[in-house]
Amino acid sequence: MATDPAGGVGVDDLSSSSPVAFFYRWNLNISRKYQHLLDKSTPFILNRWIGFLGVAFIYIVRVYFIQGFYIVSYGLGIYILNLLIGFLSPQDDPEIQALVDGPTLPTRGSDEFRPFVRRLPEFKFWYSITKAFCIAFVMTFFSVFDVPVFWPILLFYWMVLFTLTMRRQIMHMIKYKYVPFTFGKQLELSEDVVVAKINSRTDFSMPNDSSFPQIISFFGASS
């Protein structure tokens, strides 16, 4: 079997009918189709999140009925919390960016509008959390992951960790005056701009000479 200098599969093996080449072509074909489906689902935000709720509901129902795998659920909750922090955080930390290049987020109404850019985009957040639930669901079929624990302690510890993390995140938002959602650009027009727009829409200029005979004849007919 020929290999490339990097240690991978060589070009001769990929063009042959060996099992390695067949598996490589099959894996590549599946990956392309899978990526194509993901790309097509990108604009359907509501449908994607409805599908996620269905996956999460199936996992919750299974854990409820089998009464186990609480350590898997706890790890899933910690992972979701980590994803949520990335989803609510800006791509560039304002605390570091202010020391290097100045503020990157608008802090006053007169500042230039800048859309909020997340550290973890919405699509990656949805994809990661959905994949995490699917992996956790598969893990519930293996008894090796069913570690006996007292689940109220795990739930209490996760709630405390969630409260402290969200409090820190909210304080960070208040300190640097940003909201992790973009509702569109809001314009504040000055008085001069408003007057200029009104004048551009209303013509107060005097009529030209050709319109005077029509005006005179109109008033003469009315009298």
Write a short abstract of this structure.
α3 (45-66) packs parallel to α6 (122-139) and α4 packs parallel to α7 (151-176). With 223 residues, the chain is mostly helical. It is globular, with a radius of gyration of 31 Å.
- Measured as a percent range, the helix fraction is 55-70%
Mean pLDDT: 76
DSSP summary, beta strand count: 0
Return Rg in Å: 31 Å
Structural class: mainly alpha
Helical region count? 9
Shape: globular
How would a textbook summarize the main sheet? Answer: none
Extract low-pLDDT stretches: 185-207, 209-213
Oligomer: single chain
Q: Please trace the helix and strand order, writing H or E for each element.
A: HHHHHHHHH
How many angstroms separate the termini? 108 Å
Q: What proportion strand? A: under 5%
